[in-house]
Each structure stands twice: as structure tokens, then as C-alpha cells.
Amino acid sequence: MGLPDEAKALPPPGIINRNSVWLGVIGWCSAMLQNALNRRPPMKSGIHRQALLASIGWFIGYHVTKHENYTYARLDRDMNEYVRLHPENFSDKEKKTFAEIVEPFHPIR
């Protein structure tokens, strides 16, 4: 599943983003969990697997962010196009002052 060509016009997401960090941490934790389940020292053994799974998680998170950015950009484009084609549904309302909204105050003594 790749992104369409119109997604290439969007700027690339930052290398450090929310999805990359979370999925990188999940990859690292899964390597440590595998070490613990195999009764090896979780932090010390399999450093190469920890780095590999963290890198894979980071890579997947980066591409999830690209897809997320494209989806939100497409939804924004469609919504703005709808607003442009149907301006009668989005007319400006008469602005009221704060005094017109709030009930008059009469202190009781």
C-alpha cells in the first residue's frame, strides 16, 4: 500500500515525530521482552536485535506519519472545496456584543 502521487507534494514529516518515537520504543521493548522470556539478561544481551527492532519501529512510525499527514491534508482539501462550493451553508452570522448575550445584573440587597 503506497501513497498516491499527490502525496509527494506534501512536505516530509520530521525525523523525530510522535509515531516514530512510540513505535521505536515498542520495538526496543519487544526485543527486551524476548530476552526476558528466553531467560537472558534483558538489557545486556542481543544489543544488535534491540537496535534492529527499534530501527524497524522508527521506520514504520515515519511512514505511518506520512500516511497520516496525507489523510488529513486530503480531508482538509475536501472540506475546503465543499465550503467553497456551498457558501450559503457557511454564511457569517451577526456578531453580538457580550452585553447582548449576558442577562442584566440586578444586585439584591
Automatic annotation (TrEMBL):
Q: Which GO terms describe its cellular component?
A: mitochondrial inner membrane
What topology does the record note for this protein and the membrane? Single-pass membrane protein
Q: Where in the cell is it found?
A: Mitochondrion inner membrane
Give me any GO biological process, just one. mitochondrial electron transport, NADH to ubiquinone
| Keywords per UniProt | Electron transport, Membrane, Mitochondrion, Mitochondrion inner membrane, Respiratory chain, Transmembrane, Transmembrane helix, Transport
Q: Name one Pfam family in it.
A: NDUF_C2
Which residues, if any, are the signal sequence?
Answer: none
Q: What does this protein's UniProt record list under function?
A: Accessory subunit of the mitochondrial membrane respiratory chain NADH dehydrogenase (Complex I), that is believed not to be involved in catalysis. Complex I functions in the transfer of electrons from NADH to the respiratory chain. The immediate electron acceptor for the enzyme is believed to be ubiquinone.
**Family of this protein:** Belongs to the complex I NDUFC2 subunit family.
Protein name stated in the entry: NADH dehydrogenase [ubiquinone] 1 subunit C2
Organism equals Oncorhynchus kisutch
